[in-house]
Structures are given as structure tokens and as C-alpha cells.
């Protein structure tokens, strides 16, 4: 039952994603991609458990490496997207 | 459900809501920056509440990983040039894929310490999927990064047996995957899965040429999200599943937009390395008319409406700031200036928009192709800077052309067209762009940045 419930979530999330992103204008496609990089860093949440649960040494090393890589995406992704979006300006009304 | 688990799950629902709201705000330039912040807050909520989990008992490894990754990510975000965004996004796609792969591996390693007790085949199958998608994303992104950054030849690498080798990989996945699920204690199947995934990622990307890179980056972006989602299924974490799929959907939509803009199917792009080269199209007849930059100035001085059509060449020549300066001069002269941006201009979706935004061009002057084409006759001058295929009339006129049917910016319908191009070498014999031969087209030869600066100086002398 648990697995069916997970697959149900998969289905709903996929549809929601399509509906949301379809409305993003072409002008913002690059920030959308770097922002997606940041969001895909959510792997960090899964990696925290593997890194901090006092497992055997191999699991801890793999988990810590995953934490580091996902952190690159989270920190770098959000910062670069913010930097980029700060450049988009509307025409001054003179 | 115990209270800690309940709090964590409620916080995950909140985080997912914030991600969704953030993406919704990203659909307009005015609110996009706020959307990114909202999404970042969602991430913070998800991470902080996960750390509350009482199963996590040591924090020093977590801190070490976060410090290293965070510092590198922040440095990269601050130092990257906007022209290099395609490489950076590609590299980050790869990091995302590798993080998911390692998480999948860590899950196996953790399960092996307890003799895989409680590991259902659902868990094992999702682990396999995580390793597979994560591995393909990682190695594919590294190749894409190499091609985009010029560390590798951007040409498609094709050799005999490529197709057979790819099919062999697919068969291999099923065999090794089955063996892993039935015999998870044997680490050979784990390593074989990872090795197959990495080699398949390389195989799938080296055969794709530089001009198709926007499609590849968008697709790998999608994969990096799907990999996170698969990892979420493997470790049973709903926030990973939902969030990963939002990214997966986003990448897939962009991929689809890019393919449509090239009038090709995704399969056609992915398998382009296998296709026979297209037969030479009809001969283009006519004469190329060359104009000096100084003379181009007189035409621009008299123009009322100018359209700028940028392409990857503008990024290479770093001409965007000079273009912006020219725009100011033209506007002071009473002329309107607009930019027409083709969906596949540049090396990633929206690349030109970011470069022009960096040069202070207001986003409401950046127009989409379908918006500009019906009004093309109204423009006195269309300036094509470093673009080629996206303004090629062969897409409409020449049935034999490899790009026939692709939607293009119909620059040739403007009253005058300036094509800024590096040189007229090779007598244009090999050039298959009939735009260069049109009666209303003038070629302005030289480095695009120098050409525009020359025109700017003429305005100053006036």
C-alpha cells in the first residue's frame, strides 16, 4: 500500500510540474534551469540521513560526498539564479 | 505516527508548497527574483527539519560536506561569466546526478550491513533506477560540459558499431539489474550497474553535435531531477520524490520547446549521430553585397525601427555591451529598437536573454520569434549578429535543406538586413544560407564587436 501511495505522489507531482513550468516565458528559461539545479539539490535531504546516522564507514563517506555535491547545487544554484534575475530590468519610464 | 515524524512530514508539505509557489512566481520577470527566494526558503525548511530527525546523531560529517560543497558552489555562482552559463548549468546537472548516484550507493551499502533484511524488491528496483539515471546524468553532463567549454571538440563523434554498442548497453542494464535484485549481496552487480550507466551517458552524448546542445542540456536537467526523484523512492522520502519530479517536468518541457524550435523530434536529436548526412541542397545563386561599417551607419541614422537578431556569435564576440550602447544612440536618434530571440539561439534555452539583460537591455524589448515575424515588414533594418540557422530562409524555401521546416526569424522580410559576420572567406561557396544573397541584404564583415564600435564612433562624430 505504501508503494502505491508513493506512485500516486509521483503522478500528481509530474502533472503539477508540467502545469507550472509551461507558463514560464522564454526570457526566463536560463534562470529556470539554474533554479532547477538548485531545487534538484533536494537530494541533500536524503543524503543527510546517510551521512549522519553513524553507519559503517563506507556509507558515511558516500553520504558525506552526496551531501557535498548536493550542497554545491543548492548554494550555487540559488545564488547564481538570484544574481541573474537581478539583471532583468523593466524599461525606465522617462 | 510519532510526533517528530509528524512534524518532519508537515514541514515537508510546507517545503513542497514553497517550491511550487516559487516556480509559480518564476513565470514573470517582475516576481521571478522573489520566487527564487521563496524556493530557497523551502529548501532551508526541508534541510533544517531533516536535521531534527533523532536518527541523525552525528553532525560533523554533515557539516564537513556542506562546508566544502557550499563554499565551492558560492564561489562558482559569484565568479561565473554570463557567457559561461551553459557550462555551469551542465556541470551542476552532473553534480546533481552524481549526488543521487552516491545516495543510491549509500543506501545499498547501508542495507548490506544488515544483510538486506527488510529490503523489498521495490526498494532494490528503485535503487537500480537511481544508479542508472544518476550515472547517465553525471557522465553525460561531463561530456556536455567538455563540449560547451571548448575542452572537447564540439563535433559529433561517430564510429561504426555505435548503435550496436548502445543496444548492448540497454540489454546489459536489464541483465545486471535483474541479477542485482535477485542477489543484492554480491557487490559485482552494483559496480556493473554503475559502470554501465556511466559508459552509456558518455556514449549518448558524444554523438551529439554542438548546435544541438540546448536540447541536451535541457534533457540532462530533466534527468537530474528524475534521478533525485528515484533516490526519493529508494529511501522512501516524499519531498525528494515531489521536488525531483518538478525539476524533471521542467527540463522535459524545455526539451520539448527546443525540439519544436528546430522542427525535430527528440529521437531525431538523440540519434542524429546515426543519421546519414543530408544530400547537398540546390545551388544558391546570386551575389553577396558587402557594406563597410561606416556606410551601415548612414542607413541606421535614417532608420525609424531597428530589429536586432542575436545568436551564439554575439556571445563569442562579447558584443552585447556594444550592442546596448548602439541601442541607446539609436533611441536618442528617435528610432525604436527591439530584439528578436529565437528559442534555440545560443547554447542553452534563454541564453541570449540573460546576456542582454546583463548588458542592461530591458526585458520588455526582448521579443519572441512569433511576436516579431508578423511585423517584420515594419522594420527598416534587421541587424543579424552572430546568428545563422535561426534566420536562414532555406528553412522555408528549399525543400532539400537539412533545416527545411524549422521555424525561423524571417529577417529577409525587413526592408534592409545587415549581417555581421567575421569574414567572407571561402567565397561563400560552402555557405548554405540564401539570406546572404538576398537583394536587401548587406554583409558587414569583421569582428561583430569592432563593427558595432565603428558605427558607434560614427554616431559620436556626427
UniProtKB/TrEMBL annotation, chain A:
Protein name: proton-translocating NAD(P)(+) transhydrogenase
Domain called NAD(P) transhydrogenase alpha subunit C-terminal: residue spans: 7-90
EC primary class: translocase
InterPro entries the UniProt entry points to: NADP_transhyd_a_C (IPR024605)
PANTHER family (alphabetical): NAD(P) TRANSHYDROGENASE, PROTON-TRANSLOCATING NAD(P)(+) TRANSHYDROGENASE
Source organism of the structure: Alteromonas confluentis
Membrane topology: Multi-pass membrane protein
Compartments, as annotated in UniProt: Cell inner membrane
Amino acid at each position: 500500500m505504501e508503494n502505491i501511495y508513493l506512485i500516486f505522489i509521483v503522478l500528481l507531482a509530474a502533472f503539477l510540474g508540467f502545469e507550472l513550468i509551461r507558463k514560464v516565458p522564454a526570457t526566463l528559461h536560463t534562470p529556470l534551469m539554474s533554479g532547477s539545479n538548485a531545487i534538484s539539490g533536494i537530494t541533500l535531504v536524503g543524503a543527510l540521513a546517510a551521512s549522519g546516522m553513524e553507519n559503517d564507514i563506507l556509507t558515511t563517506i558516500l553520504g558525506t560526498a552526496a551531501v557535498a555535491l548536493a550542497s554545491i547545487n543548492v548554494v550555487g544554484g540559488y545564488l547564481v539564479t538570484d544574481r541573474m534575475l537581478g539583471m532583468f530590468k523593466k524599461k525606465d519610464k522617462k | 505516527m510519532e510526533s517528530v515524524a509528524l512534524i518532519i512530514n508537515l514541514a515537508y508539505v510546507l517545503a513542497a508548497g514553497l517550491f511550487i509557489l516559487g516556480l509559480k512566481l518564476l513565470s514573470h520577470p517582475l516576481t521571478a527574483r522573489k520566487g527564487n527566494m521563496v524556493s530557497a526558503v523551502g529548501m532551508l525548511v526541508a534541510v533544517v527539519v531533516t536535521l531534527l530527525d533523532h536518527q541523525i546523531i552525528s553532525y560533523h560529517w554533515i557539516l564537513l560536506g556542506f562546508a566544502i560543497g557550499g563554499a565551492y558552489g558560492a564561489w562558482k555562482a559569484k565568479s561565473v561569466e554570463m557567457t559561461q552559463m551553459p557550462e555551469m548549468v551542465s556541470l551542476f546537472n552532473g553534480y546533481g546526478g552524481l549526488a543521487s548516484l552516491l545516495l543510491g550507493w549509500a543506501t545499498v551499502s547501508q542495507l548490506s550491513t544488515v544483510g538486506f533484511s527488510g529490503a523489498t524488491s521495490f526498494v532494490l528496483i528503485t535503487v537500480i533506477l537511481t544508479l542508472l539515471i544518476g550515472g547517465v546524468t553525471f557522465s553525460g553532463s561531463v561530456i556536455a560540459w567538455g563540449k560547451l567549454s571548448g575542452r572537447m571538440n564540439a563535433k559529433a563523434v561517430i564510429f561504426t558499431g555505435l548503435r550496436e554498442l548502445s543496444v548492448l548497453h540497454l540489454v546489459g542494464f536489464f541483465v545486471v539489474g535483474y541479477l542485482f535484485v535477485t542477489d543484492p549481496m554480491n557487490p559485482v552487480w552494483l559496480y556493473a550497474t554503475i559502470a554501465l550507466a556511466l559508459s552509456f551517458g558518455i556514449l549518448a552524448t558524444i554523438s551529439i553535435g554542438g548546435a544541438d546542445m540546448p536540447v541536451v542540456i535541457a534533457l540532462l536537467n530533466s534527468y537530474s531531477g528524475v534521478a533525485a526523484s528515484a533516490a526519493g523512492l529508494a529511501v522512501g522520502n516524499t519531498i525528494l520524490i515531489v521536488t525531483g519530479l518538478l525539476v524533471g517536468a521542467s527540463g522535459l518541457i524545455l526539451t520539448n520547446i527546443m525540439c519544436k524550435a528546430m522542427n525535430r523530434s527528440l529521437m531525431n536529436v538523440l540519434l542524429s549521430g546515426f543519421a546519414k548526412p543530408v544530400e547537398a541542397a540546390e545551388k544558391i545563386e546570386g551575389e553577396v553585397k558587402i557594406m563597410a561599417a561606416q556606410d551601415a551607419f548612414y542607413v541606421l541614422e535614417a532608420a525609424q525601427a531597428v530589429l536586432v537578431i542575436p545568436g551564439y556569435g554575439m556571445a563569442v564576440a562579447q558584443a552585447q555591451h556594444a550592442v546596448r550602447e548602439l541601442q541607446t544612440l539609436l533611441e536618442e536618434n528617435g528610432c525604436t529598437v527591439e530584439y528578436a530571440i529565437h528559442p534555440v539561439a545560443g547554447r542553452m534555452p534563454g541564453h541570449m536573454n540573460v546576456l542582454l539583460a546583463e548588458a542592461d537591455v530591458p526585458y520588455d524589448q526582448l521579443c519572441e520569434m512569433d511576436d516579431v515575424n508578423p511585423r517584420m515588414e515594419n522594420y527598416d533594418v534587421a541587424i543579424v549578429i552572430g546568428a545563422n540557422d535561426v534566420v536562414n530562409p532555406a528553412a522555408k524555401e528549399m525543400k532539400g535543406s537539412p533545416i527545411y521546416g524549422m521555424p525561423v526569424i524571417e529577417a529577409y522580410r525587413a526592408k534592409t538586413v545587415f549581417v555581421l559576420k567575421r569574414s567572407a572567406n571561402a567565397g561563400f561557396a560552402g555557405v548554405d544560407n540564401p539570406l546572404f544573397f538576398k537583394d536587401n541584404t548587406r554583409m558587414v564583415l569583421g569582428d561583430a564587436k569592432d563593427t558595432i564600435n565603428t558605427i558607434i564612433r560614427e554616431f559620436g562624430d556626427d
